[in-house]
Amino acid sequence: MIIGLTSAARVNPYATLLIDELQRRQLPVGFVLSAERGHAGDVWERLKRRGVAGTLRALRRRAAGATKGPQPLVRWAAQRELDLSLPLVQICERAGIERLLVKSLSTSAAADAVFHQGTEVLINAGGGLFRKRLLKAPSRGLLNAHMARLPDLRGVDVLEWSVLLGVQPGITVHWIDGGVDTGAILGFEPLSPAPDDTLESLRERAVLLSATAVADQVARLACGEATELPGTSDMAPQYFALHPRLTDLAAARLAARID
Amino acid sequence: MPAFLSRILGMLRIAASAGHWRVVLRDLLHRGEPLHEDEAHLRAAMDWLARTQDVAGCGGGLSAGYSFRRGWLPPYPETTGYIIPTFLRYGEHTGDDGWIQRAVRAGDWESEIQLADGGVRGGQGINTEPVVFNTGQVILGWCALHRTTGHDKYLESATRAADWLLQVQDRDGAWRQNTYEDTPHTYHSRVAWPLLEVAAATGEARYRSAAAANLDWVIAQARPNGWVESMSFRCADDPYTHTIAYTYRGLLECGLQLQGDTGVSAMQLAQLGADRLLRRYELNKPDPHAEPWPLPATLNSRWQPSDEGSSCVPGNAQIALLWLRLAVITAQDQAASLRWTNSALKLLDQVKATQSLHSRHDGIRGGVPGSSPVWSWYLRLTYPNWAAKFFADALMETEAAL
Lengths: 259, 402
What we know:
The complex is a heterodimer of chains A (259) and B (402). Chain A is an alpha/beta fold. Chain A has one domain (3-258): 3-Layer(aba) Sandwich (Rossmann fold), CATH 3.40.50. Chain A has 9 helices and 9 strands. In chain A, the strands form 2 sheets. Chain A has a 7-stranded mixed sheet with strand order 3-2-1-4-5-7-8, with helices on both faces. In chain A, strand 4 (121-123), helix 6 and strand 5 form a beta-alpha-beta unit. The radius of gyration of chain A is 18 Å and the shape is globular. The termini of chain A are far apart. Chain B has 402 residues and is mainly alpha-helical. Chain B has helices spanning 3-16, 18-28, 38-56, 77-94, 97-113, 132-149, 152-167, 189-202, 205-220, 241-257, 260-282, 313-329, 334-352, 385-401, and strands at 65-67, 71-72, 311-312, 371-372, 382-384. In chain B, strand 1 and strand 2 (71-72) form a beta hairpin. Chain B starts with a helix and ends with a helix. The chains are: A alpha/beta (259), B mainly alpha (402). Chain A binds chain B through residues 48-51, 53-54, 128-129, 155-157, 161, 164-166, 237-243, 245-246, 249, and chain B through 30-32, 279, 282, 286-291, 334-336, 338-339, 341-343, 345-346, 349, 402.
């Protein structure tokens, strides 16, 4: 099975974890389709999207919201002897994975590159919103790990939404189609918060679980054991980025649930 | 005074104040005002509203607002009426009886200037022609005062006004005479709502029937996508979010009070419209995690913006209030309720960013502009009292929603 990953970041801990998990299941990654921009490009993109004031606000929020808590990613990486701070280019070199550099994942060149590799499964390890031509390029499709149960919680910040609404957090592995989190569902892996979890550490745990859940589903696809449930329509409720006050409420509910 | 002289004088007034320049410069540089706790913004908005009552100098009426060109505007019967419930709620919120007294003075002034036929005078200042929409809004104030004080005189004024509304209503439930440009408007759902308040207070079924008839007419103007025709002031124009919010708020409040098919349809239409507004807002941003761009000032029947360059700030406050009302109403469905609240909080932050808490200028400090940027079409260079009113209402509703 020819497997590819998407990436849009110079350093991509999730892609590093995915490569490791897939290799442990004897499922080598054939290539990484990368639209990374480098340091200056990252800063420019952030400024373009959020403006100066928005970027500063986001940084302030992040600094204010950073609370001490467990660091599951650090622990996991230490156990596996992985360096999650390494640039993806070095990860690929070490693992012998081809890097296909493209200007943007939205270009037809990106879709052509995926198609010409004879890709069966492309895995979303970053890249934002995908164009239809890229979705059609791999023969089986583009796979995604969504940080909540689908079809119930479509959208963004859904891990925090799960905590806020008091529903089981977890990871849904699904195919990406033209809608927002509407594609066919391969499976759901529940995520249990640890007693000392904060929203930040829970998110790290969700990243780890995403990598294992996707790798498990790719393994099932490879041996023909995967099952699919229908997705949902684009008219089903969509959950949007949380306002900081509701993020605080979610954090309080997480703490209260644990206490 | 000749028109050109008045224009020159207006321009000199605009240019003469450093406070004006600061606001223009702020909007020119896209620098929002700093955000504070709700309570600070609420207090500033209410103090500004109190100022509009004090400067009007007519006993109880509130100045329509502050204009860079014209200074403090004349008292406005319509908005004075619907600011009464805001004063009453804030009085309850703070436990300060002074706000109740302000509401009483406003209600008494409205009764003093009520026309002999029961209607409420249209426009700013003391005019002679009654207007349907304005009459409905003042009824909301009188009914709220009647509930709070128990004084029958307010219900009598409200009943006289409601009787006049029934007299001028057409057989199909719409109002065509004594309306803006003598055309029917679906934002008159916000006139059906006060009729239901009078029906509840008096037990008279005819007010309820008149409200239901109007709602049936409004609902008949709806498209499958939730859009309602004739929401604008002028037939040829796309509506401002201000009047769009009027329409759906009227439908929502009527849906809560009316039994039967009409009530159910009104509620469904209000929810559908509110959801389309929410999607319009939340899906318009550079990336899914970014803050949405402000709602456009006007929308067309496909829920697309007709003017991307500006936002109608009172409309934004009203839409946030509509979503918060839905959050409170749907509280038993936590997911739905928090979705409404989430978007409302973001939209309210954008309104907060237009309110200066520290300006030295009495017309600006605590007020909320009509447009963002302040020189845009909707009430150019003006701080209308209804912007501060709906902003204050929304901040108080936030407390209930959370």
